[in-house]
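User: Could you go from structure to sequence for me? I need the amino acid at each position, not a summary. Structure tokens:
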């Protein structure tokens, strides 16, 4: 008797309102992807985020004290980010041709 190869992909079926399908199709087309690829990617990303949000971080009391100390210190400005944040947005700049 031959052994069956284990499937590497499994079908998933959903019932969605037409408006949801239209929105998904529009976003998928905008990114040049198929509906299946778009939905799969979004579902996997949402699942990863849900699991990460529920993850428990364990550390020794000493490591926690160090962590608490570091996050309690004032932050340091990053010059490159400061420049980006203080310059006017392109739509807020006045035109030099006016």
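Assistant: Here is the amino acid at each position, in order:
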């Amino acid at each position: 008797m031959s052994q069956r190869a284990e499937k590497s992909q499994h079908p998933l079926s959903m019932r969605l309102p037409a408006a949801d399908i239209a929105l998904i199709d529009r976003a998928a087309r905008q990114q040049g992807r198929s509906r299946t690829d778009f939905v799969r990617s979004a579902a996997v990303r949402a699942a990863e985020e849900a699991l990460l949000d529920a993850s428990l971080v364990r550390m020794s009391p000493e490591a926690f004290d160090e962590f608490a100390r570091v996050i309690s210190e004032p932050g340091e400005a990053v010059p490159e980010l400061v420049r980006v944040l203080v310059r006017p947005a392109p739509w807020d700049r006045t035109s030099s041709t006016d």
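One structural detail worth keeping in mind: The mean pLDDT is 90.
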